[in-house]
Each structure stands twice: as C-alpha cells, then as structure tokens.
Amino acid sequence: MSILDGEQLQMTDYSCPLCPDTYGDRTNLHVHLEVEHRKSEIVSYLVETLEMADSNADDRSIPDEKRPIPPA
C-alpha cells in the first residue's frame, strides 16, 4: 500500500506472464513486453493459454438450448 495525503492507496502490480518481472502500471508492462519478449513468444503463450481455457470450457459447456439469446 502507498500513503498519499494520509490516505492508503492500494498499489496494483502488473506481472509479466512470461517472466518474473512486475510493473506498477499497465503502460510499463506493455513496453516491457514489446521490448524484452519476441512477438512469437507472446503469441505462443496466448495461444497455449486460449487452448487451455477452451479445453476447460468444453468440460462445463452450456447446451445451445440453455444459452440466453442476446437482444437484437
């Protein structure tokens, strides 16, 4: 936590998903990803993460007839 004018403000750390580095704001994390990690490395990580999420979603998928219909 950080104290500013007597108030306690919670610090949000943004962790790099590819290494142990953390940053105080999203912009610095964004710059780190662009500078320190190759695009192919980031894309591979995202694809693997999406594949894991898809396989987990398949286990608990909702049948089409039970899905809510979005408003037109």
Structural write-up:
- By secondary structure, the chain is of the alpha+beta class.
- The chain has one domain (2-60).
- Helix content is 44%, strand content 14%.
- The relative contact order is 0.10.
Fraction of residues in β-strands: 5-15%
Structurally, the number of domains stands at 1
Strand order of the largest sheet: 1-2
Report low-confidence residues grouped into runs of 5 or more.
none
Shape: elongated
How would a crystallographer describe the biggest sheet?
Answer: 2 strands, antiparallel
DSSP strand count:
4
Number of helical elements: 2
Mean pLDDT: 77
Measured as a percent range, the helix fraction is 40-55%
